[in-house]
């Protein structure tokens, strides 16, 4: 497989991404829905950084570019919300319900992952291809390895944030919500969407409509994931 070209200077680096996430972690109240997701994503980014430094990516430049372009999408949504601008539709449920007492921490974590994987990841692949002058196929190994890290982390998040067995029986709607969403399916859909967007790159109107519909669909799923389970 052909590797991507030399990574040009980026607006952000992995270190600056991590610094921003750590600053958010320190500033936000622990129960804030954004804080819950930010802690999850911080751990993902730290794991990716360790794997890059440890030589576990075949093309570390491509992995770095994908990691940074991916994070930029999330941080841009955070900035938009902080400045009273409208973030993408996929992120709006998290910002609208982040302080709702009836939403459980696991729901906040999953709705952030849903927005970031379901919408941002596909666009980040396209962003990275444009940055590096390569094709999506050149990023498939990096995409798959990052996806593997996300899947392993999702399992840990569910273990840590899932209520105990007694509470889970009482809160049966949470069981239903958890069964209605799959990171693996979202990851597969993101790769298909990235390939479609790349194929449509010379048809900006069609690509724009595709992106808007993707954003809206992911936002709708996120709203369902944040169904309050108590008043």
How would you describe this structure to a colleague?
This protein has 10 helices and no strands. Helix 2 (33-53) runs antiparallel to helix 3 (60-82) and helix 5 packs parallel to helix 9 (183-199). 72% of the residues lie in helices and 0% in strands. It is mostly helical and 231 residues long.
- Average pLDDT confidence is 87
The tally of strands reads 0
**Approximate helicity band:** over 70%
- The coarse overall form would be globular
Termini separation:
53 Å
Which radius of gyration do the C-alpha atoms yield? 17 Å
List low-confidence stretches. Answer: 5-10, 166-171
Spell out the helices and strands N to C.
HHHHHHHHHH
Structural class: mainly alpha
- Give a quick account of the main beta sheet: strands, pairing sense, barrel closure: none
Beta-strand share of residues: under 5%
Please work out how many helical segments DSSP would assign: 10
In short:
The chain is mostly helical. 72% of the residues lie in helices and 0% in strands. The chain contains ten helices and no strands.
Offer a few descriptive terms.
231 residues; mainly alpha; 10 helices; 72% helix; globular
What topology emerges from the helices and strands here?
Layout: H1 14-27, H2 33-53, H3 60-82, H4 92-97, H5 105-132, H6 140-161, H7 165-170, H8 172-179, H9 183-199, H10 204-225
Helix pairs in contact: 1-2, 1-3, 2-3, 2-5, 2-6, 3-5, 5-6, 5-9, 5-10, 6-9
């Amino acid at each position: 497989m052909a590797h991507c070209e030399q990574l040009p200077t980026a607006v952000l680096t992995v270190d600056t991404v991590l610094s921003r996430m750590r600053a958010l972690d320190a500033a936000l109240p622990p129960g804030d829905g954004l804080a819950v997701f930010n802690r999850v994503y911080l751990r993902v980014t730290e794991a990716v950084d360790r794997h890059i430094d440890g030589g576990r990516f075949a093309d570390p430049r491509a992995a770095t570019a994908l990691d940074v372009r991916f994070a930029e999408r999330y941080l841009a949504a955070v900035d938009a919300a902080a400045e009273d601008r409208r973030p993408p539709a996929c992120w709006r449920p998290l910002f609208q319900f982040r302080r709702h007492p009836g939403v459980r921490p696991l729901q906040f974590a999953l709705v952030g992952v849903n927005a970031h994987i379901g919408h941002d990841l596909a666009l980040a692949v396209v962003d990275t291809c444009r940055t590096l002058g390569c094709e999506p196929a050149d990023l498939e190994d990096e995409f798959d390895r990052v996806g593997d890290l996300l899947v392993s982390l999702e399992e840990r998040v569910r273990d840590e944030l899932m209520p105990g067995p007694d509470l889970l029986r009482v809160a049966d709607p949470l069981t239903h919500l958890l069964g209605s969403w799959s990171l693996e399916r979202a990851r597969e859909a993101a790769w298909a969407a990235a390939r479609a967007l790349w194929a449509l790159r010379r048809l900006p109107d069609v690509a724009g409509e595709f992106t808007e519909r993707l954003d809206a669909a992911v936002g709708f799923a996120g709203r369902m994931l944040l169904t309050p389970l108590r008043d």
